[in-house]
Amino acid sequence: MKRKVVAIPFILSVIAAVILYHVGPVSVRESGNKTLFELSFSDLDFENEIASLSETSSPAAYIHTSANSSDPNRIRGWGIVRAKDNKTPQADPGAPELLKKYNGIYIADTDKPVIYLTFDEGYEAGYTAGILDCLKKHNVNAIFFITGPYLNRHEDLVRRMVEEGHAVGNHTVGHFSLPTLSDEKMKEEVSELDRVFYEKFKKHMVFLRPPRGEYSERSLKITSEMGYINVFWSFAYKDWDRNSQKGWEHAYNNVMPNLHNGAILLLHAVSSDNAQALDRIIGDARKKGYEFGDVFDLIKIARGEAE
To answer: Which of 49, 162, 184, 205 has the fewest CB atoms nearer than 10 Å to its CB?
Structure first.
């Protein structure tokens, strides 16, 4: 009888451990410790980093339509129509107004030759240290949008970002499309990453980049109420496929004609093309009369507090 009494707690603990192991891609708490993210990079979907990328002649279409165009759950894919020769691109009709309603941003002051750099850091491909070196050399700061596994695996690089004056943005724990999640799960994906970041660096995240560029009025409203500024972009190109890199000139030739006043550039840090072209892009952009703005200024711009 005594053996059974002793064995039952042991069996229960084994069952609990098995359940915990198979709980799925969510964060778990261990008493008194920081959140541990069970996700690994292999669990995250980076195949289509920008679900609806418009680079040439037409706005990106809505990914999901509904009978009611004002449905707050309608899933939208961010897109812009490029206007080369350094002219201002055009966003999807109605999208800028929707962003403004919830303090989101995709472009800054188009009257000033100031541009802003942002990098998506879903996972690490070995180029971020060099990117940081280049930004330090040119005295430029950027927003680096990170995921849960990135913070877990590359705290040293995130620490450099913080210490060298960059903003570290929230790209969610598991890189899920936010508007497809429940309210509770959406909040968890965002708040848990910020909680761990705060425990490590004593700073809260302010900027949020929705994975895949997918959003809805509901996702904008919820994340805005959480204090976040949703940061989209006025320029991006298909640079995230590590198996389709074409050399630094490819990145350079994509970026330079699309620079414009108030630009918010999205570059993926997994791109060797971007990493190799960055020094030339910064130097030649300045030669063309552009300056790189302090990304923290985007907070006031987004909230309508800029002078």
So the answer is: 184
pLDDT grade, residue 291 (50/70/90)? very high
Annotated active-site residue 120? The verdict is yes
In the residue annotation, 268 being an active-site residue is answered as yes
Model pTM above 0.85 = no
Q: Which CATH number fits domain 41-302: 3.40.50.620, 3.20.20.370, 3.20.20.480, 2.30.110.10?
A: 3.20.20.370
DSSP β-bridge partners for residue 229: 207
Structure confidence by residue, pLDDT tens digits, 260-283: 999 999 999 999 999 999 999 999
Catalytic residue among 92, 250, 268, 273: 268
The domains of the chain are located at 41-302
**Which of left, alpha, beta for 101 (phi over 0: left; psi -120 to 50: alpha)?**
alpha
Half-sphere exposure of residue 240: CA atoms within 13 angstroms, side-chain side: 20
